[in-house]
Amino acid sequence: METFILILCILAAVLVSSFISRFIPRISTPLVQIALGAVMALLPIFPRMRLDPELFMVLFIAPLLYYEAHTINKVELLKGLRSSLSLAIGLAALTMIMVGVILHAAWPMFPLAAAMALGAALGPTDAVAVSSLGESADLTPDEHSILAGESLFNDATGVIGFQFAILATVTGSFSLPRALGEFLLEFVGGIGFGLIMGFVVNWLFESARRLGWETTTTRILLELFLPFLIYMVGQNILHVSGVLAVVSTGLLVRFDHTGVGPNTSKANIVSSSVWKVLSFSLNGAVFVLLGMLLPAAMGTSWRDRRVSNWMLVATITLVCLTVIVLRFLWTASVLIFTKDHETGSRRRITSKLLRSAAVMTFGGPKGTITLSLALTIPYMTDDGSVFPMRSELIFVAAGVIIVTLVLANFALPLLAPSQSSEVPAQQVEKSIKVLRGTVRELSSRITDENRLAIQQVIKQYNHRIAKLKSRIGQYSPKDFQDLQVQTMEWEQDYMEERLSRIEEAQDQLEERIKNENASIEQAPASAQPATEAEPSTEAETVADRDADAQLIDRRSDRGDDQEELLNLRSQEQAARRILSTISGSLFHLDRGGELRWRAYTARRRLRGLLHSQFHRLKHMTQPIDKDRVFVAGRHLQAEMNHFLIEKLYSELGKGRFKTEDLLNTIINHQMIESSAEGKTEYAGMPAVRDQVEEAKREGYAIELGQIQDMVESGEISRTTARKMRRNVYVMQVDADSAL
After folding, report:
1. Which pLDDT tens digit goes with each residue over 156-166?
2. Which of 171, 257, 305, 308 fits a 20 to 30 Å CA distance from 134?
3. Cα–Cα dist 266/289, whole Å
4. Residue 673 near residue 641, CB atoms below 8 Å
5. 621: how many CB neighbours lie within 10 A of its CB?
6. Model pTM greater than 0.85?
7. DSSP secondary structure string, 123-182?
């Protein structure tokens, strides 16, 4: 129960640190977590803790290194592999030797072998700290890949060197050939075992997927189980470096990049989410543990009256200077002798090179691995004597950890200010290029059957393009608002002209009806039937019959004219309602508070209102049925939308408006036109809805193909491609969930 409570306290501290970091962004989250851990260790209400280094390595370091290796940019890592190995092996070995020699020379009370054990423990940089602190600074791809590669490989060097130094101190003997042989066995053996496991894991997961055995649950559980299994088999059974075995496997596994499809996409998204949560939790737990261990590690020596506290502080200062100066000189030398990727020649010593060397110097802080190694220093030697200066060595190791972490926290943002809040314009432009290529391909697949569905999907892609443009300052909502205003003005002009023609036709028809009515009223006087007193001749009877027929025809024409007049009056009322709606929308649009715009729209509304009232007084008529006006309005809207679509198409290529805005507006009006003609209500039509989902899936497949083509042509890096693919996977899963 005490262990369980301790775990809950650590997780609670990790959770609290994520909230605290929001209020003090200049202090990195790892330092906040260390401080919380130290407070927990000093308060008596929290359980005491003792760290088992072997359990710590398998429980925390193995999964974190696996995830770091699996997600690292492989291309950038290969480019800087020589530099990373140089730091991981050469610098770690040099740090071990120089710290031992300098510390022993300054204070002979520190035996050379014991001082070299401290140097070996200070060799590894903390992969967790490098990853966490790197987020607060804008490191170049080369700097990030070199630091990440170093943190992946230098653990084995530090652990093996530390073991040999402790063995020499405990036994009093040391064999260099034997030490080199064991080092090569553990180093090469760990990498070899990890590579073999990488091939086996790829085959296992891909075979399970091909046979249909893979599920999201089994995939996640097996993937989480993998780093623990590899570390324990390599370290405890094969006696090779478990750290390097885990790293090699993480670098080689690729099963999540194959078999792209809805099910695989869903598994990839869930896996990524689980690993992110686990990584953050373990990262935080590592630093909380470090904070909990520091007070006890430093308190023993600080309270020891036999050792001067000033000497301890001076020792920490000397060791820190040694580690930092050695690292700066080594990284500067590596940068000088490494050929530039662009020019192919060796770099010259410039301020930029020295800044990069300083970034990589402070970007390699020490962490929990260093302290866990220091805490494994034995209490006794083989001859039964006390291990020399054990408490002091642990104190110095803890002090160096604190100093390097604090320097990394404050120096890195100064040397490489973070620009993480800004979206890389180049990456966004590549995404826009992919989306535009997808729109072009979808447009080429439009048929009469799938037109509505593909138009709907293209509209969504255009919205995505507009959002991406706004993130890099290439798009402003004002541009789209200007197009909306222009479209409404076109609508207003069209409807005013249409209303004018309707009123003109109405006036002509009313005049004709008036003349016909007068003619009909005069007809009975000339076409009276004959009386019995005055019998008509046969010719007169024929003439009367023709007059009656003409009268009937005129009365029939008058009925048709009345019906046509009723239609014109319905159209007139519908046109005025549409004009009123357009004018109201224009008046309420935000034009940046332009008074002239307000006055202009108000003047047009007033003119339309006066014209409408004058026309009503001129033509006093009975009210018209609302249904008749509604039908007339539908036809007028369809005609207006057809006009607008042609007008918008004519604007393409002129440069006045953004292409995506024009296409979106065209699609909107095409759907309105189809709806007015009774062709579409796709939300309620299963066939069209299915076509929309099918068009979405086609778009996702086209996107993935575009991304792969850009990777193969070298336009984008694999890291960028992985991020872009992840967005597609998320939308694929969202579409499948909606279905």
Report:
1. 778 778 878 88
2. 257
3. 34
4. yes
5. 10
6. no
7. SS--HHHHHHHHTTB---HHHHHHHHHHHHHHHHHHHHHHHHHHHHHHHS---HHHHHHH
